[in-house]
Every structure is written in structure tokens, then in C-alpha cells.
Amino acid sequence: MSGFKKFLMRGNVIDLAVAVVIGAAFTAVVNSFVKDLLTPLISALGGMPDFSTLKFTIGRSSFLYGDFINAVLSFLIVAAVVYFLIVMPYTHLKDRAEARLEVITRECPECLSEIPKAACRCAQCCAEVSPV
Fold first, then answer.
1. Where are the alpha helices (DSSP H) in 34-126?
2. Whole-model pTM over 0.70
3. Which of 37, 43, 58, 122 would bridge with 108, disulfide CB 3.0–4.6 Å?
4. Do residues 46 and 39 touch, judged by C-beta distance below 8 A?
5. CA-closest candidate to residue 37, choices 26, 27, 29
6. CB within 8 Å of 31: residues ≥ 6 apart
7. What is the distance, to the nearest Å, from the Cα of residue 60 to the centroid of all Cα atoms in its chain?
8. Coil/strand/helix, residue 110
């Protein structure tokens, strides 16, 4: 039981739980935005009162493709928000951090092993190298 308690109390499990709850709440907000504001606006421009009522029938089965359009719009909005507010800034920060890393090693011209920049002799092949 103590192992389970340790697992639950690790920081990444709690962070993941918080992220899932916030993600679910954000998804509900986006779904409401799409269903209640965006699709009525788009459909008003197209002459339809509501996308959710769009359907076609084959035999006795009705296919509600208007709800599918709402779901696709919701997905695209969530994906755009995640990309522009999380992925792009993270990539930018990661690229900046990688650019700041100073190279502290170089290749030995004789054996091509990694040696420190300030080395005068290669530790692998004992060749003399000029320090940088």
C-alpha cells in the first residue's frame, strides 16, 4: 500500500491529473463556443439556422453530420490553441536554449574521438593537438 501511496504522491501524477481536469474544462468551453457561437454565425452566413440539425437519412437511419461538423471545428480550435500557445513557445524556448549551449568538446584529428577543447593531447591515441 505504501508503494501505491508513493506513486500517487509523485509530482508528475498530480500534474497529469490537473492537466486532464483543465483539459476537460477547456474542451467543454471550446465545444460550447463552437456549438453556441461559431456554427450559428457560420451557418447564418450560409443561410442555415444551425449545423447540428443537418442530417441525411438512409432507410430508417439518420446520420447527423451537422454534429460531426461541430466536433471537427472544436477539434481544430483546440489543436490550434495547443499549437500556438504551447508547442510554438516551447519550441522557441528550446531552440534558444540549445543555441546558448557552448560546445566544450571537439574531435581529435587523428582518431576522431571526443576531446576537451583545451586539450593538448588526445586521451585515446595520445596524438598532440593544438588547444583551441
1. 39-46, 65-82, 88-100
2. no
3. 122
4. no
5. 29
6. 70, 74
7. 42
8. coil
* Residue 89, C-alpha cell as written in the block: 513557445
Cell representation of residue 35: 456549438
Q: What is the pLDDT of residues 2-56, one digit of tens each?
A: 787 777 677 677 778 888 999 899 888 888 888 788 877 877 777 766 677 788 8
Cβ-count burial 91-105 (b if 16+ within 10 Å, e if not): eeeeeeeeeeeeeee
Closest CA to 27 of 75, 85, 84: 75
Among 64, 43, 111, 34, residue whose Cα is nearest residue 122: 111
Q: Which fold has domain 2-101?
A: 1.10.1200
Give residue 48's pLDDT: 67
Q: How confident is the model at residue 88 (pLDDT cuts 50, 70, 90)?
A: very high
CB contact at 8 A, 127 and 121? yes
DSSP reduced 3-state for 11: helix
CA-based nearest residue to 70, from 41, 95, 92, 98: 41
Residue extents of the structural domains in the chain: 2-101, 104-132
Q: Quick one: cell of 30?
A: 471550446
